[in-house]
Fold:
Amino acid sequence: MGSGKVSLAEQPRSERSRTASDDWRRSLAEAIRDPDQLLSRLGLTAVGTRLATHGQKFPLLVPESFLSRMQSGDINDPLLRQVLPLAEEDDDVPGFTIDALEEANFRKAPGLLHKYEGRALLVLTGACAVHCRYCFRRHYPYSQEPKRLDDWEPAFAALEQDDSIHEVLLSGGDPLLLTDERLSAVVRRLESIPHLRRLRWHTRLPIVLPNRVTFEWLDLLTSSRLTPVVVVHANHPHELVADCALALRQLTQAGVVTLNQAVLLRGVNDSVEVLAELSERLIDLGIKPYYLHQLDRVAGTAHFEVPEETGLSLMAELRKRLPGYAVPQYVREVPGEAFKVPLAERSRTNAD
Ligand SMILES: *Cc1c(COP(=O)(O)O)cnc(C)c1O
Ligand code: SF4
Structure:
């Protein structure tokens, strides 16, 4: 690590912060990668549970912090469900494909996706700290994307040439798997593009690897001329406790606008009680529920799908229970549409 060529200036760092920054890398190195080990840590065995056989392509990956928020002895634990590779992943289900979002059509330069007006997305890395079994980019051709900072120049140049773009999304994979030095270099380069106004971070690390919320990263967010927006990704209220809740508080107390996106997942959060509690906990932490995504129909994820009709009834119930600001937008991505399409419940007065 750290051997990549960094062509932009690095900032000097104190001994204390270097130690803190290394914590998350150690946590990542110590993450669980073996399904049997994961189950046995929870007092479970694989007996009666059929696991996927394709393990090499998208292997299990779970940091200790996330594991510590699962309930022992419960094979149906909603956090375990998100990360345990079940045999259903091997099923070939019609309609579930490799590139369900047709993202390949929107690749404007290596690592740059420009799909929506005013916003463009940089795929900064293919790596994640957790492997979510329902991931919509699980088949993304990350190996074709840039690795060293210099390789990003074509993407930066494309951003430079299009002054309709006001916001850059840092995504992946998980952009926070890059070191703070590397992120700082990326941010400084983006700051040099005059028409950019906002920098949006799409990351699950504050949820699954909370010690990644380092002082250096917070400082990078709050010292930039680009207004920061952080979009985290939690699907169940049990995720938002302990070290995760503390990390999220650090983020919101630093004054950073923080939103959450969730995916509607069978066996994880397909109930009004769970979705309502997820929203309430987010609001308690100062985070606005942003999107509830209808599952993208990506190969290997069919067993997580909740029918849209069910999703719509859940949303109607949520609206009754929660203040309007705590209700996320239920959306679906439709290739070719100019925005993520809101799935709307019909009001009683409009119903025929
Ligand atoms: C989801 C997404 C965005 C952001 O969309 P918002 O509706 O602004 O959250 C931008 N670019 C790409 C390629 C996306 O998939
Ligand atoms: S954190 Fe996001 S990109 Fe990474 S595996 Fe999970 S859903 Fe996919």
Q: What stands out?
A: DSSP finds eleven helices and ten strands in the chain. The radius of gyration is 20 Å. The beta strands are 107-109, 112-116, 119-123, 167-171, 198-202, 227-233, 257-263, 288-293, 329-332, 341-342. The chain has two domains: 9-90, 103-351.
